[in-house]
Design a protein that fits this description.
Elements (H helix, E strand, L loop, with lengths): L3 E4 L3 E6 L4 E2 L12 E6 L1 E2 L6 E2 L4 E6 L6 E6 L10 E7 L2 E5 L7 E2 L15 E8 L6 E9 L3 E6 L5 E4 L7 E5 L2 E5 L7 E4 L20 E4 L8 E7 L2 E6 L3 E5 L7 E4 L12 E3 L2 E6 L2 E5 L4 E3 L6 H5 L10 E5 L2 E6 L9 E6 L4 E5 L4 E6 L4 E5 L5 E4 L4 H4 L7 E5 L9 E14 L4 E9 L3 E8 L4 H5 L7 E9 L2 E7 L6 E15 L1
Parallel strand pairs: 3-4
Antiparallel strand pairs: 1-2, 2-41, 4-35, 5-6, 7-34, 8-9, 9-10, 10-11, 12-13, 13-14, 14-15, 16-17, 17-18, 18-19, 20-21, 21-22, 22-23, 24-25, 25-26, 26-27, 28-29, 29-30, 30-31, 32-33, 33-34, 35-40, 36-39, 36-41, 37-38, 37-40
């Protein structure tokens, strides 16, 4: 049950049955109590309130910032533990790392190249077929508008330059072709390769469907293509203020249609999820649904979107991983991404973490990797469910409920009793529970210890906490906090608040 307020003859009761996430729309009074008006570094897995999990630092470290993180999967590699390879761009060089190894290995430069001019690459995984052989080689194609395109071969980890008619700032694989855009001297042009061959960019006059080609789509406003995304059987081409949908599988059937609602100002946040593409705008998230671009549930994190530093949003980053969307943004005048907003479509929850500074995300089948804006050259694994892991964030946490007046401003509430059931995972800790009225804020310390064997054996022996708060007011709210370096804990079964009432 989402909300329970019961007013009796002598007292009133409010029940928070479960915990969901942020809801920052409206006046913040008598809103669904499952939602918080303010929150940081919390999780609400299964409706249980607990601190966010600590992220895990991996051992390989590069000396300079990692500005691109990509994945190459070698399907035909003989060693199962070496099939997955991560590629990093740092300091004008490319490196690879096989998970489990202790260090990065530098990839050899293509012939005639001593250093790459850019560390920001667009990438796409594909395969090439050797001449005279049916064998396929898994490859990773990387491209930027300065260095052009290179190919990392999965068989010997060599790097070769791929000649292309233009130098592409972005690339994408769609309908067995590689598409390229974000061309410095041709911002309105999109180029596509021959089918099944990412190294062939030559047109076929006799059989155009078997050759490469290009499309011009001018907008006459100085805008440029900034991103390409495969979307089902279509490819979606983004400019900062416009979006186009390309349908068809060969030049004879291509149709190019502009969509409604604007474009993608921050291409690093574009992420595809089934029938939606979510991305960031200056006002918050927006969604492309196959027809138009529209604001996406911006009311849930309204205050957070207003805190974004618009001057630093160019480096924001977003990804869908395991059915959640993660968006790293700069808030409170920060020049780097110092917060992550997390959206879970399964339960509609929105949460904020300000204990991590993410520069780039990379999702694989098993892990969500990220590089840090404050720890150049280091690689981390994102983690969730602090209770199961036994590893909570070392940052302070906070959960603030909405104001509650029981729908009766003519009633004075007072002498509050708060009932809750808190558990500690391995070590004792202290929760700070505050009850605030429009007149005063009062705080109690709630000691939480790990469960005893008897409590674990018989849950009916769990010891519920009861905290008493004096004072009166016509409305109230609850604040739950922990200090830094607090061990793992959780609140289960919700919270009940009982107060005496005194009608006017």
């Amino acid at each position: 049950m989402a909300k329970t307020n019961v007013i009796g003859k002598y007292d009133a009761r409010s029940v928070i049955s479960t915990f969901r996430g942020l809801m920052q729309y409206g006046d913040g009074v008598d809103t669904d109590p499952r939602f918080a008006s303010e929150e940081s570094n919390m999780e609400t897995i299964g409706g249980v309130l607990q601190p966010a999990a600590a992220c895990r630092l991996l051992s390989p470290v590069l000396q300079q910032p990692i500005e691109t993180l990509a994945r190459l999967y070698r399907r035909w590699h003989t060693e199962p533990q070496s099939k997955e390879v991560l590629i990093a761009a740092s300091g004008g060089k490319l490196y690879y790392w096989i998970p489990g190894n202790q260090r990065w290995t530098q990839l050899a430069m293509p012939s005639g190249v001593t250093a790459y001019a850019s560390n920001v690459w667009s990438w796409a995984a594909y395969e090439v077929n050797e001449a005279g052989s049916d064998a396929s080689v898994d490859v990773l194609l990387l491209s930027n508008a300065i260095d052009g395109m290179v190919m990392v071969r999965g068989d010997d980890m060599s790097v070769v330059q791929v000649p292309t008619p233009k130098k592409f700032g972005v690339i994408e694989r769609s309908a067995e072709r590689i598409w390229g855009g974000a061309i410095t001297d041709d911002p309105d042009m999109l180029v596509y390769s021959s089918p099944f061959d990412p190294t062939n960019w030559e047109a076929d006059v006799e059989h155009p469907e078997d050759g490469a080609g290009d499309i011009m789509q001018p907008s006459w406003d100085g805008d440029s293509f900034t991103a390409l995304r495969s979307f089902g059987s279509q490819i979606i081409a983004f400019k900062r203020t416009r979006v186009w949908r390309i349908q068809g599988t060969d030049p004879g059937s291509y149709t190019f249609k502009e969509q409604y609602g604007g474009g993608a100002a921050y291409p690093g946040t574009i992420a595809v999820n089934n029938e939606q593409i979510i991305m960031l705008s200056r006002q918050g998230l927006q969604v492309y649904d196959g027809l138009s671009v529209n604001p996406f549930q911006q009311q849930y994190c309204k205050d957070i979107w207003e805190r974004m530093n618009s001057d630093a949003l160019e480096h924001s980053a977003g990804i869908f991983w395991r059915n959640k969307y993660y968006c790293a943004i700069p808030i409170d005048a920060s020049p780097i991404n110092n917060a992550v907003v997390i959206y879970d479509p399964l339960d509609g929850s929105w949460l904020l973490r300000d204990d991590v500074c993410v520069e780039r995300f990379l999702g694989t089948e098993d892990f969500l990797y990220f590089t840090s804006s404050t720890a150049p050259g280091k690689l981390y694994v994102w983690q969730e469910d602090s209770w199961s892991l036994g590893q909570a964030t070392t940052a302070p946490t906070k959960w603030v409920t909405h104001w509650n007046d029981f729908g009766r401003m003519d009633i004075v509430k007072g002498s509050f009793e708060v009932y809750l059931l808190a558990e500690a995972k391995d070590k004792p800790l202290t929760l700070k529970i505050s009850l605030q009225t429009e007149k005063k804020l009062k705080t109690k310390k709630c000691a939480v210890t790990p469960l005893t064997e008897a409590e674990i054996a018989k849950p009916k022996n769990y010891k519920q906490k009861r905290l008493h708060f004096g004072g009166t007011g016509r409305r109230f709210r609850l604040i739950i906090e922990t200090d830094a370096d607090t061990p793992a804990w959780r609140l289960i079964g919700g919270i009940m608040i009982v107060s005496d009432i005194d009608p006017d």
